[in-house]
Write a structure and sequence with these properties.
Number of helices of chain A: 6
CATH superfamily of the largest domain in chain B: Thiamin diphosphate (ThDP)-binding fold, Pyr/PP domains
Distance between the termini of chain B: 53 Å
Largest sheet of chain B: 7 strands, mixed
Strand content of chain B: 15-25%
CATH topology of the largest domain in chain B: Rossmann fold
Shape of chain A: globular
Strand content of chain A: 15-25%
Number of helices of chain B: 12
Structural class of chain A: alpha/beta
Number of domains of chain A: 1
Shape of chain B: globular
Oligomer: heterodimer
CATH class of the largest domain in chain B: Alpha Beta
Number of strands of chain B: 15
Radius of gyration of chain B: 21 Å
Number of domains of chain B: 2
Distance between the termini of chain A: 22 Å
Helix content of chain A: 25-40%
Largest sheet of chain A: 7 strands, mixed
CATH class of chain A: Alpha Beta
């Protein structure tokens, strides 16, 4: 793992983008890493494009600036691809992970991101099937773990149980865990 | 035993408030402070604190309730930001001049207008002459640590002054980081219980707070406020030493980062100091001798100690997240104070001011690096190219 891994999340208000960033931070805490999770505060409206940021490191992080050149970009909502510059600043060797029914090659064509790695997973479909609602943050975390190799699926599962355990019913909790595991299996690279 | 938690700065502050369990908290919500008081209200509702939580209709009333409760002998805390602090204004002065040890979490945010909810230091710089002790915090950990120490500083019999603990709005108040949370019992033991010397509710020793005080004694009372400020540094350092013994985290009047052998230095407070540390490390790898001075105690201002810490450097850049409009060269308040301190202590190195980050404008490592490179040129030529630079502004 390089000194600091910088991650940018794209989604829409109400899709759990900020929660996903915090979940990742909690997971980092549980595995003894240093981290920062911070949203991009603007006018927050349900459905509006929003961004969130995460830094992960084995060493203390003192920088308090925005992330301009992320190592990883996650897109939780496929409709953002054509309207938001999701690959802006993404490092040449970076990772782009998109929730979409498209194949990675199609995402490369739309975004013009020809280098690095592109992963896709139909997190919306998984979420609707498993959770019954299009809340894509937990499946995207599963896909993230598989795409980056930064966390074990079991570490994330444990964190989701701790985070959601008291907030949702056991049924919803299990559905989130199933979503996470399924997405980790179904994510494809190209 | 302490634990490590993933907390936003405001959550860390609320956790400190839970552990301190003050007698009274009076506050009004204002962005970006709101999540502190919201979380603390949860603690009240869940019965985790015994605090009398006073919800009020404005910040003016919040600070008024704090003054009343503190005069009655209660341990009192509040939290606010920017325009909320501005609305407290009148009572902010009364709290200090009545010698009431109120502790405030101040989440630094730009003062309107135009309307802006993001970070700068225009709010706290407005209260610099109000008689409060003011502490800066780089991150959530420091905001948490400073708040715990603030209680003991404020309530010390030699001080009895209110303390404001600052952190940067959104950048650290809403940024989640790893924070070491100490054992509840250890924090409670550290702050102890408050034994007010002069309580309005002490019926055996009746007294008055805030009466008419004209040309007969007003001036003497102001002089006593000065005496309290004069005693504050010793108390601040003694509390820091006790804190370090208990919790193993070292605080002083300011932090010197790789400053000892530095040829040029930057002075910057709060979250941007963390970004500056990254730049210092990068430039040090290039072999450039650069250092950082990060103010912690802004009031009382440690002029002599700062001058001594900067004495050996060949050029100093101060970075200000506020403007003192109409002041000398329209500089920032931190620069004005440090420039005066250095000059009066006989230091004549070039010194420049860099205003940055107003209204939450991001400050990037590359921008801080450019400041260091400017300072190397100033060190070489013996003078600064420009006294005040508004960094990365569109002209």
């Amino acid at each position: 793992m390089k000194d600091v891994v910088e991650i940018r999340w794209h989604g829409r208000g109400g899709q759990g983008v900020v929660t996903a960033g915090k979940l990742l931070a909690e997971t980092a805490l549980g595995t003894g890493q240093y981290f920062q999770a911070f949203p991009d505060y603007g006018p927050e409206r349900m459905g509006a494009p929003i961004r969130s940021f995460t830094r992960l490191s084995r060493k203390p992080i003192t920088i308090h600036a925005q992330i301009e050149e992320p190592d990883v970009v996650l897109v939780l909502d496929p409709t953002l691809l054509g309207s938001v510059p999701v690959t802006e600043g993404l490092k040449e060797a970076g990772i782009l992970l998109v929730n979409t029914s498209m194949l990675p090659q199609e995402v490369r064509e739309i975004t013009g991101f020809r280098t690095g790695k592109v992963f896709t997973v139909n997190a919306s479909h998984i979420a609707i099937e498993e959770i019954g609602r299009e809340i894509t943050n937990t499946p995207m975390l599963g896909a993230f773990a598989r795409a980056t190799g930064l966390f074990e699926i079991d570490e994330l599962t444990e964190q989701i149980r701790a985070w959601f355990g008291k907030k949702v019913s056991p049924g919803i909790l299990d559905a989130n865990v199933r979503s996470l595991r399924r997405a980790a299996e179904e994510v494809v690279e190209g | 035993m302490s634990t490590f938690e993933a907390l936003a700065g405001n959550e860390a502050v609320a956790t400190a408030m839970r552990q301190i369990d003050p007698d009274v908290v009076a506050a009004y919500p204002i962005t970006p402070q709101t999540s502190t008081v919201q979380k603390f209200a949860d603690f009240v509702a869940d019965g985790l604190v015994t605090t009398e939580f006073v919800t009020v209709e404005s910040e003016h009333s919040a600070m008024s309730a704090c003054v009343g409760a503190s005069a009655a002998g209660a341990r009192v805390m509040t939290a606010t930001a920017a325009n909320g602090l501005a609305l407290m204004w009148e009572i902010v002065y009364i709290a200090a001049s009545s010698r009431l040890p109120i502790v405030m979490s101040l989440v630094n945010r730009a003062l309107s207008g135009p309307i802006n909810i993001h970070c700068d230091h225009s709010d706290v710089m407005g209260m610099r002459d109000a008689g409060w002790i003011i502490l800066f915090s780089e991150n959530g950990q420091e905001a948490y640590d400073n708040l715990i120490q603030a209680v003991r500083i404020a309530e010390h019999p030699d001080v009895l002054l209110p303390v404001a603990v600052c952190q940067d709005g959104f950048i650290t108040s809403h940024g989640m980081e790893r924070v070491e949370i100490y054992d509840d019992a250890d924090v409670k033991a550290f702050v102890g219980s408050y034994q007010p010397q002069w309580s309005l509710l002490d019926l055996q020793n009746p007294m008055t707070y805030g009466p008419l005080d004209f040309y007969d004694y007003y001036y003497e009372h102001k002089r006593q406020q000065v005496a309290a400020m004069e005693k504050a540094p010793e108390v601040i350092l003694a509390v820091a030493a006790a804190f370090n013994r208990q919790f193993n985290r070292d605080y002083g009047m300011f932090e010197s980062y790789r400053l000892g052998d530095a040829e040029v230095a930057v002075v910057v407070a709060n979250s941007a100091a963390g970004t500056a540390k990254v730049v210092v490390d990068q430039l040090r790898e290039e072999g450039l001798k650069v250092g950082l001075l990060k103010p912690r105690v802004f009031r009382p201002f440690p002029a002599q100690e700062m001058s001594a810490a900067l004495r050996h450097v060949k050029a100093v850049a101060v970075m200000d997240r506020a403007i003192s409009f109409g002041a000398m060269n329209n500089a920032g308040p931190l620069f004005l104070e440090i420039a005066a301190a250095l000059a009066l202590h006989g230091e004549r190195m070039p010194i420049a001011d860099y205003v940055f980050g107003l209204g939450g404008r991001d400050i990037l490592p590359g921008e801080i690096e450019s400041v260091y490179r400017d300072m190397f040129r100033a060190a070489e030529s013996g003078r600064v190219e420009q006294m005040v630079t508004y960094l990365s502004v569109r002209e």
